Amino acid sequence: NFDIRKHVLEYDDVVNKQREIIYEQRRQILGEPTLKPIIMRMVGEEISRLVSLYTAGRYGDEWDLEGLYMAVKAILPLPASQSAAIADWEQKRPEEIEAQLLEQAEQTYDNLEASLGRESFHQAQQTGLRLAELAEADAGGLYKLLYQNLEPHLDAEVWEEVKTKPLSALSRETGRRVQEAFGKVLALQHDRQVMLQVIDNLWVRHLTDLDNLREGIGLRAYGQQDPLVAYKKEAHEMYQDLLATIQHDIVHRIFRPVEIRIQRPRPVREMRTNLGEGGVRRPVKAVEKKVGRNDPCPCGSGKKYKHCHGRADRAPALQQAQGTAQRTTPQPVGATRARQQKRRKKKRRKR
Predict the structure, then answer these.
(1) Average pLDDT, integer, range 148-165
(2) Which of 38, 79, 86, 287 has its CA 20 to 30 A from that of 16?
(3) What radius of gyration, in Å, describes the C-alpha atoms of the chain?
(4) Which pTM value belongs to this model?
(5) What is the DSSP letter of 273?
């Protein structure tokens, strides 16, 4: 039993080491004030790998620049003219192509950040309210996120002006600074969502693969292999593939356009009272609620209304209905039939 528990702990130790690294990456993502350096490092490594892959030949005729164009276009937007881009790359070395693509990637990131700030600030201005009012009316939304994280990106004077004035009343220079701060906050939130979603999904899949590997690793003993050593080796290879896949998926999703949808706060309903002109209180009509036949009786007896006070309430109505029926009821049909029978008997006697 001791040996079995020892082997189980050794297997679990492999997973725990990988888990510590992944969780440390998640804590870093949640704690960093900006994720742009980390993202640009990933993008740089991915672009460098692609350039080395498609320009592996010694001469330019051996390069697959069309394949490079399509591979890079899946990461970030490139000039619409593929032929012009390829013609430009043909005149450059692989290092120059890589530097140009990295510059375009950084410019694309800045443009995305500016677009997020411009669109969100414009929508906030249209409400005509202060940011604090928007955050209170939109608890849990983007306004709340902006209000909680905007202060570190602004000067003290600008932040005080943002708290006291409506966003539509800010000066042009102050509005420009607030718009840039909006872009930084929303870009950080977007980067965190993309990175954490990719890491969490792939990590869960990786744990499933490790469990499947662990179930069948014991058969390696029949091939004169130590199952634990084989498990550690293959788990390490799977972990390296996991890191590469995480970087690949983040790079291919981080530059996708983001649509900002900020829900407008609901207008506060106007309170109405029963005060008339001059502040004189007007009488309020009491609304009588009709009691159903099967509802509990209002007297509190616990009986149904129809078996309690409903009988007494229905009695006048029943009496009135009976009197009306008596006045309007015609003579009974039986008297007419009796007279007809007498006439028939007289006719028979005469015959």
Answers:
(1) 90
(2) 38
(3) 41
(4) 0.68
(5) -
